[in-house]
Amino acid sequence: MKAILKGVKVVEVAAWTYVPMAGAVLAEWGAEVIKIEHPEHGDPQRGLINSGLVPGGGSVNHMMEVPNRGKKSVGLDLASPAGHEVLLKLVAEADVFLTNFLPTGRRKLGIDVADLRAVNPDIIYARGSAGASADPKPSAADTTWPRSGPVAARPTSAPRPRWSTPSFSPAPPMATCSAG
User: Fold this and answer.
1) Domain count, the chain
2) CA distances from 160 to 54, 146, 148, 170 (A)
3) Largest CA-CA distance found in the chain, in angstroms, rounded
4) Does 159 fall in a domain?
5) Burial 50-72 (b: 16+ CB within 10 A, else e)
6) Which range of residues forms the domain containing residue 53?
7) Can you tell me the distance from the alpha carbon of 148 to that of 141, in angstroms, rounded to the nearest whole number?
C-alpha cells in the first residue's frame, strides 16, 4: 500500500474503538499517529481481557491492538499542567487532532476546538462519538451494540444477553462525526 499520508502528523486523544479505528486507518495510509493515553490506566479497552469481560489470553488483546495498530503511544496526564503543556506542543506541530471525548470532558481537559486552534490555527479537528455528540446521551453499549449484530441477529429462542436494548425511542443517531 502506498503511504499517501506520509508526512501527516495526527494527535489522537480517544479511547475504545470508534475514533481510534479512524486513527488506525490514517496510520495504515502513512500518517504518523500519536495516541495519548493516561499514564496509569490508559485506554479502558486495555483491561477488557484482564477483567474477564472479553475472552482471550496470552499476550495479545486484539480488541486493543486492532484499533490502535501502527500508532505511537504517549502516556500524559492531561489534567495536569505539565501533561497539558506537552499535548499543546504536540498539537502545535500536528496536522490533525482526533478525539471522541464528549463536550464536558473536552472542556475540562482544555482540548476543545478553540483551545487547540489557539496553538495551531490550521489544525484539522475531528471529533466523533459512537453514541452521542452532546452530554449526557447513551453510550455505544446502550445504542450501537444492542441494535446491531449481537442482539439483532440472535435467534428468538436464544437466551437474552446480560444487557438489553434501551427502553427509549426513537433511537439516537448511531454515529456522529463533525469537523470543527
Assistant:
1) 1
2) 18, 11, 14, 22
3) 57
4) no
5) eeeeeeeeeeebebbeebbeebe
6) 9-152+166-179
7) 11
- CATH at 146: 3.40.50.10540
**161 lies in a domain?**
no
Q: Which amino acid, one-letter code, is at 111?
A: I
160 within some domain: no
- pLDDT (tens digit per residue) in 118-130: 999 999 999 997 6
> Which one-letter amino acid corresponds to residue 129?
S
Q: Sign of the C-alpha dihedral, residues 137, 139, 143, 146?
A: negative
Give the pLDDT score at 156. Answer: 52
Residue showing cell 496510520 = 27
Name the stretches of the chain with pLDDT < 70: 49-50, 56-59, 130-180
What integer pLDDT is reported at residue 132 of this predicted model?
Answer: 58
| pTM across the whole model | 0.73
Q: Percent of the chain having pLDDT more than 90?
A: 53
- The distance in angstroms from the start CA to the end CA of the chain is 30
126 φ/ψ angles, rounded to the nearest 5 degrees? -120, 130
Whole-angstrom Cα distance, residue 46 to residue 54?
11
Classify residue 109: in a domain, yes or no: yes
Instruction: Enter the C-alpha cell of residue 162.
Output: 446480560
